[in-house]
Each structure stands twice: as C-alpha cells, then as structure tokens.
Amino acid sequence: MRLFTFSVLFSAFALSASAQLTGNGYYRASSTAYGRYITVIDNRTNGANYQTSSVDLQALRTTRPFTGRVDSDPATVLYFSYQGNTGSGDAQYDLEAQGVDTYKLVQAHLIIKENADGTYWAYGSQVKAGTTWTLYLLDEQNQYKDVGNLVTANSAAKKWLITPISAASDNYFGVKPTVNIDDKWYATLYADFAFQTYSSGMKVYYLDAIKDGAGVDYAELKEITGIVPANTPVIIECSSSEATDNRLELIYDETAAPRGNILKGVYFENIDAYGTGVNSGHQNSLAYNASTMRVLAKVDGALGFRTSKTLNYIPANSAYLPVPEGWDDKVLCLSAAEYASAIQSVEADDAASSAIYNLMGQKVLNADAPGIYIISGKKVIRK
Fold first, then answer.
1. Euclidean distance between CA atoms 64 and 8, whole angstroms
2. pTM value?
3. Phi, psi (5° rounding) for residue 218?
C-alpha cells in the first residue's frame, strides 16, 4: 500500500508555525485542546451513517505523551494522500496507516480545512436524500486522560495541529529498544512505511534461514543497507535505550521486501489498548503460541530469539520468528560466516541420523510432498 505519515507537534507553546499540511506526506495529528495524537489500533469499522450523524471510530484512539509513547509508535504515523479539492475549494485527503485507508473504511474522503490560526478542521460530508450531512472529527473532551476516543459532531469546535514528521525535527519517529546486550540495544519493528536509519550506530537486519541444532537452533542474520521497504519485519540495532537517539527517516518508497525473510510481523495488539477497556468488535491481536513462536531476546549472552514466559499476544508493530512445533527454546542469531560454520557442524551430525530437512534448514516429519530435502546429510529430490 502507499505510505504516509500524519505528523503533528503539540507543545505548551501553543500553535507552532511548524504545524502545516503541504500535500502528500507523513504527518502526525494532535488536538489543540488536549495534545493527544491520533492513533490507529484496528483496521475494521462499521462505517459512517451521515443520516444519524454517527461514525464507528473505535479503530482510532488519541494518545499522549509524545516522549516515551507517541515518538516510537508507528500507529501515530499517518500518510496524507491528496485527492483533489471540493467544489468550495477545500482539500480532500485519504489517510493511510497500519494497512488502513480511510476511504475504504467510510467511503468518503476526509476534508481538511485550514483555519486562520494555522490549525485544521477535519470532516466528512455527503448528500443523502437531498440533505448535506457533515461530521467533524473531535477529540474526546476530557483533559485528564492520556488516552481518549475520537468522536464526531455537527460542530467545528475542535481544532487539530498537523505537522510533518522529520528525523531532524522535534516531531521525529524513533525506535524504542527492548533488549540490551553489552553496549548495544535491539528491537524488532514491523511498520507500514519505508525508512532509512538517521541516528548514528544503527543497523537493520532480517533473518534469512534457520537450522535445527543440538540444544540451540541457528538463524542467519542479514543486514539491510539503504532503504528498508515498508511492511518488512526487521531487527534494529540501536546505540541507546531512548527513542530520540534512534531516529528513522521515513520515506515514500515502493521497494520490494527482501526475499527469504523468515520473520513475521503484526500491526495490532488492542485487546485492552492503553488500558481504555475492551470493545469486542475491535479486538485485533495475534495470540502468542509458545510452541511455534520465538521472540527477540538475549540468548546465551548474544542476540537471538526464544520462548517467552510472559507474553499473551505478540506486541503491536513487532516481529516474531515462527518455528516448527517441538523445536528448541532458543534460536541464536549468527552472521553469514558463523551460520555457515554452524550448518557444517550440524550437517556432520545429521549424516549419522535419519533427520529430514527442507532447503530452508527446517526439520520436517517426512519427505512425502514433492520438493528437495536433506536426508542423512544428502540432497534428495521427491517428485
């Protein structure tokens, strides 16, 4: 899908001159009243009913604070795609994030009208049975909540700030690491935008192959240099534990994802998003399965994946490693040279056994299906 960021900078200094919408691009949006940022937590909706002035907006939340939450949350990154002007001259946009397109959800473009003070109104409008119905987007009117709900009304009482996302600005996107190994920090990321690393000391990897070992399994770590394609689950090496030190430059790009990446990613984990309660119609999470999933961790003092003893769901915008049922608890990430050496050792041991592997290095129960297998250390073709 197309990539975009909805970027908004809210601060105590009120309506910043940097808040501006200048066409297609990545932005964040925050309410001027409460400083909460629009956040996408689901990709489903029951749509809009303009005759009853109602829209299902449970797929969205508003969230704060910026530092420590919004700055590292891909769900706050919105892409504004310009769709022409209305008859009255107001600009229309589709907003895309987390695999969601607002037009597909509610069958209407979002009209963005700039006010004289640099803020914006956001609303939808349709003509039904000769009557024009207009619904404005408002933040929940509660200044004490860090997480609120979006609502609609026939009023433009609420204003929004819209600011471009840039790694060089205060409205940046950064990576919040989860694993520390010596002086390096690591995180997985699965996001709906392409990017390049901006801060020094950052590297991006994917896993190309995995091999069943003796007591610990091995996965081959490959670096991605240059642009990292959108919708690519990756491992990011950082130099700090803080998102502001691990900034990414978001890029509109349609580069294909690397072939052979065995990592999988998820966008959503909203069983109880930010502690706001459960709405069964918008629960959207992937349950964690300890038998077939491994998550990023420190393994024997090095980078790897292992079974989690605490997860119930895969965290939003993160990656996990799928493995065959019955595999070992730990998977060690190795460089290409280290992986090749480990494979030679494992295959030497396999030669004395009847173990069966596919060409991805994954152990399989049998070689009944057509394909190429490694059986007792030798390549066998099944037709």
1. 12
2. 0.82
3. -125, 140
Torsion sign across C-alpha atoms 307, 309, 312, 315: negative
Counting every residue written for the chain, the total comes to 383
Rounded Cα gap, residues 11 and 306, in angstroms? 41
CA distance 136 to 155: 6
Q: Which pLDDT score, from 0 to 100, does residue 372 have?
A: 60
Place of tokens 């980078």: 303
- At 1 the pLDDT is 30
Maximum separation of any 2 CA atoms in the chain, in Å: 80
pLDDT for residue 346 is more than 80:
no
Q: pLDDT tens, 146-172?
A: 988 888 776 666 899 999 999 999 999
- Spatial distance between the Cα atoms of 193 and 4, rounded to a whole number of angstroms: 7
